[in-house]
Amino acid sequence: MAYGSLAWSLSALLGLLLTPSLGLEPPRISFPLESPERPLPLFSQPDIKNTTTLLLSDDGSTLFVGAQDAVLSLDVSQPDVITMKTKMEWKPPPDVLHECTTKGKKETTDCPNFVRVLQPINATHLYACGTFAYNPQDTYMDTDTLTMAKVPRKYNNGRGCCPFNPYQRNTAISVDGELFTATTNDFRGKTPMVSRHLSKDGRPDVSQDTSVTLNEPTFVSSASDTSEGKVYFFFSEVGNEYSFLDEFKVARVAQVCKDDSGGERILQNRWTSFAKAELLCRPPKELPFNIIQDVFTLTPSEGYSTQDIIFYGIFTSQWSVASGQSAVCAFRLGDIKDVFAGNYKIFQNHQWSPRMDKSSNLGKCGLANASDTTLMAVKESFLASGSVRPIGSAPVLNSPDQRYSRIAALRTKAANGQDYTILFLLSESGFLHKAVLLNKDTHIIEEIQVFRQPQLVKNILLSTSKGVLYVGTSEGVTQVPVSQCSSYKSCAQCVLARDPLCGWDPASGHCASVSAIPANARQDVEHGNVMKECQGSLTAKPLLDDHYN
Ligand SMILES: *[C@@H]1O[C@H](CO)[C@@H](O)[C@H](O)[C@H]1NC(C)=O
Ligand SMILES: *[C@@H]1O[C@H](CO)[C@@H](O)[C@H](O)[C@H]1NC(C)=O
Ligand SMILES: *[C@@H]1O[C@H](CO)[C@@H](O)[C@H](O)[C@H]1NC(C)=O
User: Least crowded by CB within 10 Å, which of 228, 303, 408, 499?
Assistant: First the structure.
């Protein structure tokens, strides 16, 4: 109701249409669960639940999984089977469980230890953090044996590293052995915090100034830019710069400098480099997609600058009451940096206004010894005036009927030498959509059913080098090869798929991975022109079959 009237007032205000754009064709092929043409190795065991935190070892042979009351290491070195290597149980003891239930939480759904952070910390150990009966705990683990070791610091718990409440989202990233996290850090889940832990060289751990800097955020992702020594966080929150719109959500990117050690008198042990900006994802003449669901960081191919790192984000709208609708927007790191290097707003008397002087220090690294005046400016001016616009100023994909929630992306060279981006989009109903971004629009190559029940909590992890996507849900972990060219039995099917990863090999008469047949592959990603590509290698029948399907 409140949303309805808000939608009206906003749409009236901006003169917008509520009808979503049409034009995205449905997937060309759909593979149901356990389809023999698209076999998906699955790891699941009745006693292992909520396998949703995923981390792949550097050599790609081991998948570490944070589950309910356990951390697992899975052998993923074989293409067609996933097996368990080690399981380390990590359960709250009875007295801690009891305390959790006396605080009104449910023993079996709220109080288990849901492992929510798994990050590499050095060559031999992982860092893990779990909700541990609403009492977050963390530990180091040996990567071979998963044996636990104490985290070397004053207070041995995971506060500020992962949430108390297992239903709240959080994000964490380790950079050079230090841990950067964004989570709530209290029992009620009301105090959000971006912080650095396990700080090196004797420098202090650093966290947020006050709760004023964030408003009911939901953190979804983080990334690091080693060239500038910055860490970025992606989230949605209530945008209190839009004070005329109650509870209006905005999607954000925030930055901190990796080496920030806080100020001397002002901002002691607090970020001097925290800044945030709005991310815009809005199709022309439609309401904005203002809630960010997930972000994938696509690093550019060798030889390109880090400015060209692209963040692919999935967005939904606060006002889409209908079951599904979502969009994908792509943001360049260079554009994000420009916004943080520009003007800032100032927060005074509970509202935001443009800052009149252009303080050149805002958003910069290295303010440890800055003057009190400068640090006061940082304290009250951490919202960039500019918003980050997506590449092409509009979504790269706008789905009227799919609510996507997780994303991964890869770049690949098609048979004609052109680079294409392929997106993997996990829908809430349990399907993975594989889409290729074409010069003018987007084509959904295939959809693959990856789980039976709609899943509230799930995760995907892409290994480009292995050509595999892992999907973690409460049912188990599924391995999805990024392509299965052999499922296309004829030249026509192979060409019509328009999959940059697959081409028809006339010599062998098979649809094969383009990388395996670079010189010969018959492929037409833009148009799927069978007549042209399949001349000579066609028997008439499959062509007709496919045309009339
Ligand atoms: C990694 O960290 C663990 C835990 O602090 C420590 O015992 C181990 O020696 C470290 N390994 C290396 C190679 O630094
Ligand atoms: C754990 O998995 C169950 C389904 O098996 C699901 O209902 C529940 O929401 C999950 N809990 C968390 C905290 O992820
Ligand atoms: C800040 O000043 C302290 C001593 O006052 C010095 O040791 C330190 O190197 C300075 N840091 C920077 C970043 O200049």
Answer: 303
CATH of the domain at 548: 3.30.1680.10
Residues above pLDDT 90, as percent of the chain: 75
Are the C-beta atoms of 470 and 493 separated by less than 8 Å? no
**Residue positions counted in the chain:** 549
| Pocket flag, ligand 2, residue 49 (CB < 6 Å) | yes
The CA–CA distances, whole Å, from 179 to 143, 207, 259, 260, 370 equal: 17, 12, 12, 13, 25
Q: What pLDDT is recorded for position 357? A: 79
Strand pairing category for 383-388 and 275-279: parallel
Ligand 3 site, residue 369, Cβ cutoff 6 A: yes
Instruction: Give a yes or no: residue 259 inside a domain.
Output: no
Please answer whether residues 409 and 312 qualify as being in contact, where contact means their C-beta atoms are separated by less than 8 angstroms. yes
Average pLDDT, stretch 24-52? 92
- Is residue 541 included in any domain, yes or no? yes
Task: Name the phi and psi angles at 3, rounded to 5.
Answer: -65, -40
Does residue 455 form part of some domain?
Answer: no
Q: Which domain holds residue 504?
A: 487-549
**What is the domain count for the chain?**
1
Give the number of the atom of ligand 3 that is nearest the alpha carbon of residue 369. Answer: 1
For a pocket test of ligand 3, which of 265, 369, 374 has the largest count of ligand atoms closer than 8 A to its C-beta?
A: 369
Ligand in nearest proximity to the CA of 68: 2
Amino acid at 19: T
Instruction: Enumerate residues 6+ apart whose C-beta is below 8 A from 59.
Output: none
pTM of the model: 0.92
